[in-house]
Amino acid sequence: MYFTDRGIEELEKRRGDEEVTLAWVADQLQAFVDAHPEFETPVERFATWLARLDDPED
User: Fold this and answer.
1) Alpha-carbon gap, residue 19 to 47, rounded angstroms
2) Cβ atoms of 43 and 33 closer than 8 Å
3) Which of 7, 29, 33 is nearest to 20 (CA)?
4) 33 contacts 42 by C-beta, under 8 angstroms
5) Residue 16 main-chain phi, psi, to 5 deg
6) At 17, which helix (H) or strand (E)?
7) For residue 55, what is the enclosing H or E element?
8) Which pTM was predicted?
9) Cα separation of 33 and 54, whole Å?
10) What is the phi-psi region of residue 21: left when phi exceeds 0, alpha when psi lies from -120 to 50, beta otherwise?
């Protein structure tokens, strides 16, 4: 198990029953980057990946 898997599992356990919008997720990602600017690049890559999931060009 990767270290990140534990974080993902905790997220699902704590918040798995909640419904949220993508706008809320985007706000949380921005708040995280504001608090931890050293993670700007990976968060940007993750957000771009999510945004383009249905794009056959990528």
Assistant:
1) 19
2) yes
3) 29
4) no
5) -60, -25
6) none
7) none
8) 0.78
9) 25
10) beta
